């Protein structure tokens, strides 16, 4: 990691700021991902879940803005390779599942949960680093976002368990080329 003129006083603080910049990039890109997921979802419950989390994501961006302000830095997004890969995987499951199926909803839930788990790992780590750097106010803001990410993950699990997974288990194998694991469709 290269040294940047960020007002940081230690390598850990540089790393902390870089992680914040990556999460800022991730949250801003997640807005369009969630909009697409909402549009591609089949059930109203899942559509509502994605809409709600999109609203929360705007709040996450505002909190990150506040964190940067408290650090006396401008929010500067830096691409996050990890979440870009997970976002790409989400686009792939949309391309590889049939529109209007429970299978699509299952795939969307799993893709969304992968994002949530990555974000939970990052926000939990960032909150701990903020404490290590004696920045309790920042830790509190980051933990607020962490709790919302945990709640979103839990809600996605509930939606899956309340019937979508079961519905998908009863859908017949499609014969189209546009399905996950097309090599199994002969």
Automatic annotation (TrEMBL):
InterPro entries: DUF892_YciF-like, Ferritin-like, Ferritin-like_SF, YciF. It comes from Filimonas lacunae. It comes from the Bacteria. This is Ferritin-like metal-binding protein YciE. Residues 167-186 are annotated as: Disordered. Residues 175-186 have a biased composition (Polar residues). The lineage of its organism: Bacteria, Pseudomonadati, Bacteroidota, Chitinophagia, Chitinophagales.
